[in-house]
Amino acid sequence: MPVKCTADCGRNAVLKRPKTGDALCKECFFRAFEEEVHHTITAAKLFVPGDYVAIAASGGKDSTVLAYVMKLLNDRYNYGLKLVLLSVDEGITGYRDDSLETVKRNEQQYGIPLKVVSYEELYGWTMDRIVEQTGRRSNCTFCGVFRRQALDRGAALLGVDKIVTGHNADDIAETVLMNILRGDVARLQRCTAIVTGSEGVISRSKPFKYTYEKEIVMYAYFKRLDYFSTECIYSPNAYRGHARVFLKDLEKVRATSIIDVIHSGESFSVREGVKMPTQSICERCGHVSSQAVCKACVLLEGLNKGKPRLGLGKSSKVEEHLARQSTDSSGTTQTPTDAPHTAQPSHTPSRSTHSNTLRTLHSLDF
Ligand SMILES: Nc1ncnc2c1ncn2[C@@H]1O[C@H](COP(=O)(O)OP(=O)(O)OP(=O)(O)O)[C@@H](O)[C@H]1O
């Protein structure tokens, strides 16, 4: 016997919302999903009319749904935003080249212009070549650091006011757990912020901060959005993978675990007197860094000098190397020149939630 939509619209339910357990029809689910994102955007005052906003678009489910919903809400609520898609081509053959084809189709489908910047043009390296040098153990570190900077550089080239990313509630809860497990108090303090960015840096925000990944997959599926769902061909970040598995297990016994972990992270405060990193300017490329030389410059130098492990080990070794280098006047170093950046948690590869959630959708049991 069909179950009625709990929103009392008279239609039959076709899904059970992971966030609330409500049985909903497609239309009521779409509306609830969109209204929650709208609420997140307005409650946090993410935009002001006239803002030029870059949507960081990878072609994956999160950023594809983000682009679609940003356009929809901008039109529905007259946010007054000018939107642009910004993609980074990391140079991963068989992965990013294919996902960028999806973004190019999204450009046509949503009528939002697209700008692509590549590691090759910005750094002279593709991820394929970096992996040849580093192997598959630390490649996610290079990818994460360079992508963060590449997005900043692309955004600066476009002249946008703000960047939005598709980071969702699951991503943020995982990051809270990882920072607790690593004892990384500085990142723990800032990882739940919906807006990040300091003086002189284009701010970033996460309109999906409270949106469950499972619901993003459902939304994309029922809207039949065109997105790319293959996993990154390079090794997944094992540490994030552990946090993810742990969270998924918690979610099975307590549906609100993801939001609970985010709330715990938000309530966290650092005792007075605890030493925290201070943000300064990278002495090489002139952009924001918590070290004298930023992580992107260190990693790039390692690659260019055939020492790809430079910057991956203990920071004291890096400092020694840099100190030696600054006394060696003959050393020339290719460094990024025009972008703000700070070291970030490693690149998060795409995951199997897509197929898991779709499997669940096909076996819905009210
Ligand atoms: N190559 C890229 N170009 C532009 N933006 C990117 C790129 N990779 C990631 N991003 C941005 O960072 C967000 C988080 O990226 P992450 O690597 O965690 O992928 P994800 O959670 O699978 O997201 P998506 O489904 O959008 O790929 C993405 O939603 C997107 O906004």
From TrEMBL:
Xref: NCBIfam families: TIGR00269 family protein
Gene of this entry: ctu1
GO biological process annotation, one example: tRNA wobble position uridine thiolation
Pfam families to which the protein is assigned, alphabetical: ATP_bind_3, TtuA_LIM_N, zn-ribbon_14
Key words, A-Z: ATP-binding, Cytoplasm, Nucleotide-binding, RNA-binding, Transferase, tRNA processing, tRNA-binding
Pathway listed: tRNA modification; 5-methoxycarbonylmethyl-2-thiouridine-tRNA biosynthesis
Membrane-crossing segments per the record: none
Region named Disordered: 310-366
The species this protein was found in: Portunus trituberculatus
GO molecular function: ATP binding; nucleotidyltransferase activity; tRNA binding
2-thiouridine synthetase TtuA-like N-terminal LIM domain location: 9-29
Domain Cytoplasmic tRNA 2-thiolation protein 1 C-terminal: 282-310
Compartment list: Cytoplasm
Similarity section: Belongs to the TtcA family. CTU1/NCS6/ATPBD3 subfamily.
Any one cellular-component term (Gene Ontology): cytosolic tRNA wobble base thiouridylase complex
Polar residues bias spans: 324-360
Record has Cell inner membrane as a keyword: no
InterPro entries assigned: CTU1-like_ATP-bd, CTU1_C, Ncs6/Tuc1/Ctu1, Rossmann-like_a/b/a_fold, TilS/TtcA_N, tRNA_thiolation_TtcA_Ctu1, TtuA-like_LIM_N, UPF0021_CS
Role, per record: Plays a central role in 2-thiolation of mcm(5)S(2)U at tRNA wobble positions of tRNA(Lys), tRNA(Glu) and tRNA(Gln). Directly binds tRNAs and probably acts by catalyzing adenylation of tRNAs, an intermediate required for 2-thiolation. It is unclear whether it acts as a sulfurtransferase that transfers sulfur from thiocarboxylated URM1 onto the uridine of tRNAs at wobble position.
EC number, UniProt record: 2.7.7.-
Domain (tRNA(Ile)-lysidine/2-thiocytidine synthase N-terminal) ranges: 53-231
Protein's recorded name: Cytoplasmic tRNA 2-thiolation protein 1
Binding site residues for ATP: 56-58, 62, 88, 166, 171
